[in-house]
């Protein structure tokens, strides 16, 4: 039953994250990427405070995990992804970031948090990556290499994997998911401040006078940030970092379906094939024989 709750939480999170591109695309007409990032997580942080206003104390030896999770999952991941998009193609970023579950499996094994995934996991990974590639390019082009942007996207995939592993470790401390996520957001916002000075933060009240801006900021701040990070961290706690991370394969699938419904975009036959391959890859990766959940789950040291 607990595992079913984890799968439901992961599916819900990925569904929302797969639709955020519409809100972000609209808001880019009013704000810079780093401004959207800071505003959405600040809103999310306030929402989590209102949901759980109690102050909770933790052992100082465990504070480093919250700091690391905030830097990786909030600050670095989104900044690296956004900057990567300015140096390389969106299709490149979509494919490279989808490698994150493989990094999660590798890092989890190296840190003795999980057993080494076997052949089914990696076969599922190859299916999913091929599917993401077809979705991202519509089967009409070859991925062009843009070293700077592609490297930044690869780093984004790696830091998200580290965030997942670190958050799974934090969940073992027994803290509630909401206060745990709130503390991670705090450090994410704290380390985002230097980026605001570097990239500039020029937001005026007139920008918030538009209904569409308010609606989409609420969606990103409360839905995609506060609620979804809580549900994702809950899923990590129930499923483990490897199983949970494979749901990332579904993001481009949901994005395509949303584009088809909301933006009336046409979907090619290659895109349909890509979605089928991605779903097949997810199912293979989720098979119990694909991930041999080990007894080393608790060995990643305090």
From TrEMBL:
* Xref: InterPro entries: AA-Vitamin_Transporters, EamA_dom, EmrE-like
Reply yes or no: does the keyword Transmembrane helix apply.
yes
Q: Could you tell me where this protein is found in the cell?
A: Cell membrane
> Does the keyword Amino-acid biosynthesis feature in the UniProt annotation?
no
Which PANTHER family is this protein grouped with?
A: INNER MEMBRANE TRANSPORTER, S-ADENOSYLMETHIONINE_S-ADENOSYLHOMOCYSTEINE TRANSPORTER
The entry's keywords: Cell membrane, Membrane, Transmembrane, Transmembrane helix
Q: How does it sit in the membrane?
A: Multi-pass membrane protein
Q: Which residues cross the membrane?
A: 7-31, 37-53, 65-87, 93-111, 120-139, 145-163, 184-201, 213-235, 247-263, 269-285
Q: Which residues form a coiled coil?
A: none
Give the protein name, as stated in the record: DMT family transporter
Which parts of the sequence belong to the EamA domain? 6-137, 148-284
Protein family: Belongs to the EamA transporter family.
- State the source organism's domain of life: Bacteria
């Amino acid at each position: 039953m607990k595992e079913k709750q984890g799968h439901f939480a992961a599916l819900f999170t990925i569904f929302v994250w797969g639709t955020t591109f519409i809100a972000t695309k609209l808001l880019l007409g009013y704000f810079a990427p780093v401004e959207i990032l800071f505003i959405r997580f600040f809103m999310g942080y306030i929402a989590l405070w209102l949901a759980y206003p109690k102050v909770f104390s933790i052992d100082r030896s465990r504070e480093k995990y919250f700091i690391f999770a905030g830097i990786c999952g909030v600050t670095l991941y989104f900044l690296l992804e956004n900057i990567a998009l300015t140096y390389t193609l969106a299709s490149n970023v979509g494919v490279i970031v989808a490698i994150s579950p493989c990094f999660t499996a590798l890092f989890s094994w190296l840190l003795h948090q999980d057993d080494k995934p076997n052949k089914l996991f990696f076969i599922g990974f190859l299916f999913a990556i091929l599917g993401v590639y077809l979705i991202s390019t519509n089967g009409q082009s070859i991925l062009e290499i843009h070293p700077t942007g592609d490297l930044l996207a690869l780093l984004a995939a790696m830091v998200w994997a580290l965030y997942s592993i670190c958050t799974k470790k934090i969940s073992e401390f027994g803290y509630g998911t909401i206060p745990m996520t709130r503390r991670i957001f705090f450090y994410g916002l704290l380390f985002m401040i230097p980026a605001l000075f570097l990239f500039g933060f020029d937001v005026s009240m007139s920008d918030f006078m538009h209904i569409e801006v308010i609606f989409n900021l609420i969606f990103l701040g409360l839905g995609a940030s506060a609620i979804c990070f809580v549900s994702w961290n809950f899923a990590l706690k129930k499923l483990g970092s490897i199983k949970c991370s494979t749901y990332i394969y579904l993001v481009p699938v949901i994005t395509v379906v949303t584009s088809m419904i909301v933006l009336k975009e046409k979907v090619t036959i290659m895109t349909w094939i890509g979605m089928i391959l991605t779903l097949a890859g997810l199912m293979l990766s989720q098979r119990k024989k694909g991930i041999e959940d080990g007894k080393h789950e608790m060995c990643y040291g305090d």
